[in-house]
Specification:
It is found in: Cytoplasm. It is an enzyme of class 6 (ligase). Pfam families: Anticodon_2, tRNA-synt_1c. One of its GO terms (cellular component) is cytosol. This protein has about 500 residues and is mostly helical. The chain has 4 domains: about 1-75 and about 250-355, HUPs (Rossmann fold, 3-Layer(aba) Sandwich), CATH 3.40.50; about 90-195, Glutamyl-tRNA Synthetase, Domain 3 (Glutamyl-tRNA Synthetase, domain 3, Alpha-Beta Complex); about 355-400; about 410-500, Arc Repressor Mutant, subunit A (Orthogonal Bundle). The chain has helices spanning about 20-35, 55-65, 90-100, 110-125, 145-155, 205-215, 230-240, 265-270, 295-305, 320-325, 340-355, 355-365, 375-385, 395-400, 410-420, 425-435, 440-455, 460-470, 480-485, 490-500; strands at about 5-10, 40, 105-110, 160-165, 170-175, 180-185, 195, 220, 245-250, 250-255, 280, 285, 335-340. The strands form 6 sheets. It has a 3-stranded antiparallel beta sheet. It has a two-stranded parallel sheet with strand order 1-2. Helix 9 packs across helix 11 and helix 16 crosses helix 18 (about 460-470). It is elongated and about 110 Å long. The chain starts with 5 loop residues before the first strand and ends with a helix.
């Protein structure tokens, strides 16, 4: 790719960043890095009524946690700043005026009440009201008024919007990297509002102007913007500007595969749909996040990469560098990608195994008050024994609590299975063996116990099941002799004596 690649992620600060937005940011980031380009963050806050305090900081923190930080944006390498649309509003009116001057746009003075009347009137007759070529000369705008009337209305301070003048009887030929060639009949397009009566541009005008001024080479965005592609291409043509290349990513679907994954689905189905925990400024909206639920950012990114893209191989595990090297927009699917909460757990389990035991031990210790006085090196040794069965740091306590505290109860089903006639006497003999055995290593203790079992022709299950029950409280956990070595000879004997006295 010869052109200077510049892509942008342009979220609205109206609340927490949905995981679908993170996927869009990721694909932009991967594309930029693959071609040594620039990943731009632009905050599209033209809708001030929906602006939420703190949402921009949440977006930036989310991108940083996911290890996909922007190269250029608010307060960072502001080559084409400012990067908040509310701080650029002085720019947009002049471009709207250019479109009016060239005949590609017009003033519309229709009131909200008038438009609402037309909509309801059409609905009554089973039709849909569209403001475009077939009725604009009958409505209240600069196309149906004389130049003197328009001037008088403007001088009088009448409210107006500026609408794009969609062409009649034309066929638009659009290109999309993912979806190929697209044909659109202009007769079905409405005359979209470009500039609102409050003096702010709509998304359509602002994003075209900003993409042009910021020299964006590729617009990679969600499928929901595909219906706007026709207008956006027409705006580039109207200004006489070269349009960027477009790529519209497939929808992320609910776990059922039906319908778009929404912000409410996570709370309803019990899994996060936001990268970070979110609490609204008023405290009336609280949603769980992947970070706080114990997911590793590497797992989240690896999972999201496969929502709509595939490398063309059987490989599923990709670190960020590998994703950058493998990523190709040509391999992004058109059809929606089903969100699988179990699959992201699978990824998290994999990345759990790659984490340094020392890091996991610190995280585990900080998460449990019961570990406050336990030596970190001991905790690290425990982690090495149970890590393979863990998906989250929060799993460690259930998998390893018996390394730190003796069982107070014993699984009823396991107890009936492990304790039979003669078990008490075997356990008492076992205490003698353990007390006299060399406990300098796991192997010496194991050799002593297994040697006693073999030489006395005792069934292994008759000893090992009640022994495990004594140590763990259930018939589960890592190797029995790892547990004995870790908790020590004295604690082992104490636990066996305890299980004998109870069972």
């Amino acid at each position: 790719m010869t052109k200077n690649v510049r892509v942008r992620f342009a979220p609205s600060p109206t609340g927490p960043l949905h995981i679908g937005g993170v996927r869009t940011a990721l694909f932009n980031y991967l594309f930029a890095k693959k071609y040594n380009g620039t990943f731009v963050l632009r905050i599209e806050d033209t809708d001030q009524n929906r602006y939420v305090e703190g949402a921009e900081d949440y977006i930036v923190e989310s991108l940083n946690w996911c290890h996909i930080p922007f190269d250029e944006g608010p307060n960072k390498n502001e080559k084409f700043g400012p990067y908040r649309q509310s701080e650029r509003k002085h720019l947009y009116k002049q471009y709207a005026d250019k479109l009016i001057a060239s005949g590609h746009a017009y003033y519309a003075f229709d009131t909200a009440e008038t438009l609402d009347f037309h909509r309801k009137d059409h609905e009554t007759n089973g039709k849909t009201f569209i403001y475009n070529w077939h009725n604009r000369l009958k409505l209240d705008n600069s196309l149906s008024l004389s130049a003197e009337e328009v001037k008088a209305r403007l001088n009088a301070g009448d409210d107006y919007v500026i609408r794009f003048k969609s062409p009649q009887d034309e066929t638009l030929h659009l290109k999309d990297i993912i979806r190929g060639d697209i044909k659109i009949d202009t007769n079905i397009l409405d005359d979209k509002v470009l500039f609102k009566s409050d003096g702010m541009p709509t998304y359509h005008l602002a994003n075209i102007v900003d993409d042009h001024l910021m020299e964006i080479s590729h617009v990679i965005r969600g499928e929901e913007w595909l219906p706007s592609l026709a207008l956006h291409q027409q705006l580039y043509d109207a200004f006489g500007w070269k349009a960027p290349e477009f790529a519209h990513l497939p929808l992320i679907l609910k776990p059922t595969g039906k319908g778009k994954l929404s912000k409410r689905d996570g709370d309803k189905l019990g899994f996060p749909v936001f990268p970070l925990q979110y609490v609204s400024p008023k405290g009336d909206n609280h949603s769980i996040g992947y970070r706080e639920e114990g997911y590793f950012p590497e797992a989240v990114i690896n999972f999201l990469a496969f929502l709509g893209w595939n490398p063309g191989t059987e490989q599923e595990i990709f670190d960020l560098e590998a994703l950058i090297n493998a990523f190709d927009l040509e391999r992004v699917n058109k059809s929606g990608a089903r969100f699988d909460p179990e699959k992201i757990k699978w990824f998290n389990h994999h990345y759990m195994q790659e984490q340094p035991n020392a890091d996991l031990a610190n995280a585990f210790k900080n998460s449990k008050q019961e570990l406050a006085d336990i030596d970190i090196n001991y905790i690290e040794m425990v982690i090495s024994l149970v890590k393979e069965r863990a998906t989250f740091v929060s799993d460690f306590w259930e998998l390893s609590h018996f390394f730190f505290i003796a069982p107070e109860t014993y699984d009823e089903k396991a107890s009936k299975k492990a304790f039979k006639e003669g078990t008490k006497e075997l356990m008492q003999e076992l205490i003698t063996i353990i007390n006299t055995a060399d406990d300098s290593s796991k192997d010496t203790m194991q050799d002593a116990v297994k040697g006693w079992i073999t030489s006395n022709d005792i069934g292994f299950g008759k000893v090992m099941m009640p022994l495990r029950l004594a140590l763990v409280g259930a018939l589960q956990g890592p190797d029995v002799f790892d547990i004995i070595y870790m908790i020590g000879k004295a604690e082992t004997v104490k636990r066996i004596e305890n299980v004998i006295s109870i069972l």
